[in-house]
Specification:
It is a single chain. The chain is an all-beta fold and 124 residues long. It has no helices and eleven strands. The strands form two sheets. Strands 2, 4, 5, 6, 9, 10 and 11 form a seven-stranded mixed β-sheet that branches. Strands 1-3-8-7 form a four-stranded antiparallel β-sheet, with no helix packed on it. Strand 5 (46-51) and strand 6 form a beta hairpin. The protein is globular, with a radius of gyration of 13 Å.
Length: 124
């Protein structure tokens, strides 16, 4: 069983930045994509960003393009989400997920293991 763990959430003012980290333990290889999703109160979990197994391909939700950046440490398989210019709409629980394949995409079904999430709060 792969255990996914996120960290780095917190409280930030509008326009501020946070960097989220994600690790996946007990994985048999580092050849999987990783994705970031968020869930605001009362809303469904939505796609934020994903990165392919080697970091060569990234996908972003339109709402975060130009402000968020996803990266990956190929040696460890850890993933990171740099969030800049955060807005109140960006608040919620951010989840990291381990992809089923090398390039998992936007669909939640493309991911097998999920972390418990880390809370991001953006004050106005």
């Amino acid at each position: 069983q792969v255990r996914v763990t996120e960290s780095g959430g917190g409280l930030v003012q509008t326009g501020g930045s946070l960097r989220l980290s994600c690790s996946a333990s007990a994985r048999t290889s580092t050849g999987n994509a990783m994705g970031w999703f968020r869930q605001a109160p009362g809303k469904e979990r939505e796609f934020v960003a994903s990165i392919s197994w080697n970091g060569g391909s990234t996908i972003y939700a339109d709402s975060v393009k130009g402000r968020f950046s996803v990266s990956k440490d190929r040696a460890t398989g850890s993933a990171f989400l740099q969030m800049n210019a955060l807005m109140p709409g960006g608040r919620g629980v951010y989840y990291c997920a381990d992809g089923r394949s090398a390039d998992a995409g936007r669909d939640r079904g493309g991911y097998t293991y999920w972390g418990q999430g880390t809370q991001v709060t953006v004050s106005s």
